[in-house]
Amino acid sequence: MNRRAALRGGAVLAILIVTFAAGVYVDQVFPEYVPPLHRSAGNVDLTELQQAIRVIQSDYVDSHVDTTKLSHGTVQGLISGLGDPFSAYFDPAQYKKLQLSYQGVYSGIGIYLSFTTGYPVITGTVPGSPAANAGLQAGDQIVKVGDKDMKGVTPDQATTLIQGPDATKVTMEISRGGSTFPVTLTRAEIHVPTVRSAEIGNQVLYVRIYQFGTQTETSTAFASALSTGLPGKTGVVLDLRGDPGGFIATATDVISEFVASGETYELRDRSGTVERNQVNGQPKAPTIPLVVLVDANSASASEIVAGSLQVHHRAKLVGTVTYGKGSVQQDFVLADGADLHLTIKRWYLPNGQTIDHKGLTPDVTVTLPSPADAYDVASPSQGYAKDTQLNAALALLAG
Known about the structure:
2-enoyl-CoA Hydratase, Chain A, domain 1, alpha+beta, Pdz3 Domain, 6-stranded mixed sheet, 5-stranded antiparallel sheet, 28% strand
């Protein structure tokens, strides 16, 4: 099995609701093998587990037990017992959907969400998606999906409720401007670009990265945006707001477009071994003034990029404190195609600092009054007059 690395995680604050399992991306490695099972694994009592399985098989009232579900549930229980929000178990079907998500192909309604203790808030829609065609917009709150009240739900729960096969329907209750209304959408396959760009302000190149997909998907698109957009520009705004993360190689590629030499980040395992990762290639924009937009929904790979550029004194950060996702996971693909997504490392900024549970502090703190005020590069005609964070970035570049 070929090794490849990605950034992927298990709890996300901003997510495109489609068919993939919700999650902030963290370091994801596909190992050459899964370690063999030993009868005794530390203090784990395998005898008790085997006894429980025998009791279910011999005494449970329904003799037609779905052994596949029982097996999946057992592994899920092991992962849940870790108490780690970033370790997860994906059954074979979920893992296949996850792999499709890396390619920017989804089946769902096409919305971006942010999560707080209240109701999920739509921060944007994918152009041409069922959500966009139905008139859903940034700032809308999802109160119910079917009969399920959505207050305080996790990203995983929201994804499970909203996602589904093509051509199936989902009914939601939306709150907007103090009133609520129902909407029924038909799910569809959605192809989502991970990078969009435009010229704004006084010859400033604006680039939005929605998530750090594969190098083929995101690194190539980002490099193209710089190649075609940089000539004649006076500065760059890199918008990572609401970006839950992505592949680690892609994060390195983005940093390397702005930094000529040095570390991008460090990885440390359980033994304390430090792996220092370096920038690669020739940067297209090593000196042009740069501002990075971040918020509480910027996580994982987004924080690696923003934090590394900040530590290298290559960019100023504008916005609010980021999510604070500093752990690293590894994917172990099991024999039946299921996946163990296990925390194995932590990542650190080039200066050795961790942002885990703390987040990055912007150089200029600016709040956004409403998600609906954010500039939507997919609908540039709406402008950015109300986007306080973007206007602060432009002012910083001008000054």
